[in-house]
Amino acid sequence: MADWKIRKVVIPAAGLGTRFLPATKAIPKELLPIVDVPTLQLVVEEAVAAGFTDVVLVNGRGKSAIEDHFDIAFEMETTLRARGKTAQADGLRAIANLAHVHSVRQKEPLGLGHAVLCAEAAVGDEPFAVMLGDDLIDSVDPGIGQLVRVAQETGKGAVALLAVPERETSLYGIATGKSAGARRTAIEHLVEKPKPGTVKSNLAIIGRYVLPPDVFAILRKVKPGAGGEVQLTDALAQLAVEGRLIGVELEGTRHDAGDRLGYLKANLAYAMKRPELRDGLIAYMRELVR
Ligand code: UTP
Questions:
Q1: Would you list the domain boundaries of the chain?
Q2: Which atom of ligand 1 is nearest to the CA of 16?
Q3: E strand or H helix at 39
Q4: So what's the pLDDT on residue 227?
Q5: What's the predicted TM-score (pTM) here?
Q6: Which of 97, 94, 32, 99 is nearest to 63 (CA)?
Q7: Chain centroid to CA 153: how far?
């Protein structure tokens, strides 16, 4: 089915962000900055770089600052222009013009699978992409675009995989299957957070997906798992058993910005790419480790 048209990307951002409390008591985790750019903006920029123009944002209670970030900041822009800071004002407007951002509401944070299901009416009966709002793929070739190409070529769902150290497999959904060419795995089984030593694979699912529309029907039947949450992995496991899921080890560097250490590493990695920060940062890191 090479005629997959993938026009919409769903970005779930309605979680509680408990690993980042107290920072996330009033500020959405997805807006915590990587240097000076909110994580979620980097995710939307990746989608736009891959050719997406329509973003379906799944948002929840107390997180309306996310919508504001992708809207026009009229007073701020006017003040900046009055002060002659045109470039800054233009930069803010460019964020509002990045994409058409539609919001849907997840009234309770009942899990990632449930968040994706909340986007069903906005997506309709067509394949779609999913990008997690706290997962970064730093790559010249946008991560989600790499998955879109595989899905279009194979007519199957595609998920991003990352080889993780053995001791970390219990933190992820882990995929097993057969090699299907360079960087590709025909996924046969998926297990969510397996106990150490119980699976042979170390290929973890990370936050980029391209899914067929019938995943919504599958999700409706998924029973809540650990913590009462509807897991997306459980629906993906069904696609895998049916031979309809390809795993792709993406080109690029992945940062888990939803995790404290991952977030700090992401800040360092992105700061090192800024010429105005790089030397000062290196000098300070030398001082710190002396
Ligand atoms: P996470 O599990 O990383 O987010 O979900 P969380 O639940 O907010 O984090 P912790 O564990 O409490 O710190 C990955 C993405 O899915 C969204 C989150 O906002 C995050 O961007 N999500 C998660 C939802 O939209 N709804 C949910 O019910 C759960």
A1: 8-288
A2: 8
A3: helix 39-49
A4: 74
A5: 0.95
A6: 32
A7: 22
Q: Six-digit token pair at 129?
A: 């992409």
The second-level CATH assignment, the architecture, of 8-288 is Alpha-Beta Complex (3.90)
Residue 18's Cβ-side half-sphere holds a number of Cα atoms within 13 Å equal to 1
Candidate from 132, 171, 172, 209 with most ligand 1 atoms within 8 A of CB, to mutate: 132
Residue 290: the pLDDT is 86
| Structure token pair of residue 22 | 């107290």
Q: Which atom of ligand 1 is nearest to the CA of 111?
A: 28
Q: Is the pLDDT of residue 133 over 60?
A: yes
pLDDT at 226 over 70: no
Name which of 68, 69, 63 is nearest 28 in CA terms. 63
CA torsion sign for 201, 150, 171, 252 is positive
Backbone angles phi, psi at 64, to 5 degrees: -70, -15
If one counts every other C-beta atom within 10 angstroms of the C-beta of residue 136, the result is 27
φ/ψ of 93, rounded to 5, equals: -65, -35
268 pLDDT exceeds 80? yes
Task: For residue 267, give both structure tokens.
Answer: 């800040």
Name the residue type at position 257: A
Phi/psi at 134 (5° precision): -125, 15
